[in-house]
TrEMBL record:
Keywords: DNA-binding, Transcription, Transcription regulation. Residues 15-113 form the HTH hxlR-type domain. PROSITE patterns: HTH_HXLR. The keyword Transcription applies. GO terms for molecular function: DNA binding. This is Helix-turn-helix transcriptional regulator. Pfam families: HxlR. Gene3D superfamilies: Winged helix-like DNA-binding domain superfamily/Winged helix DNA-binding domain.
Amino acid sequence: MTEPLSADMFPDADCADRPMPFRVGGKWTGWVLRCLDDGPHRFTELRVALHWVTPKVLTETLRAMERDGFLTRTVHDENPPRVEYGLTVLGRSLIGPLDGACDWARRHAPEIAEARGAYRS
């Protein structure tokens, strides 16, 4: 039998002045990281690759990633204005773990599909 979980398991989790110990982002963060891996891109270019993501959700994702320090938003002084999004050093440091997670998912895809099928039954 396992030990009961302790209320002190995450002692600092309720401290509002500290970020969560590990938070990569929302549902689309990994996809955006992959899109920006080869260099900066404009919003419209990201929309082509991520065509199933609504513009509103993509904008929210980009803002959250900028807030968390994963990417930069560069406005070029042109007419019309050109805005590009690019990975920061912090954002780029997530590519390795993202690659590892993708490799794991590919290796275990049959097991995951089987578990999902069994769950639906």
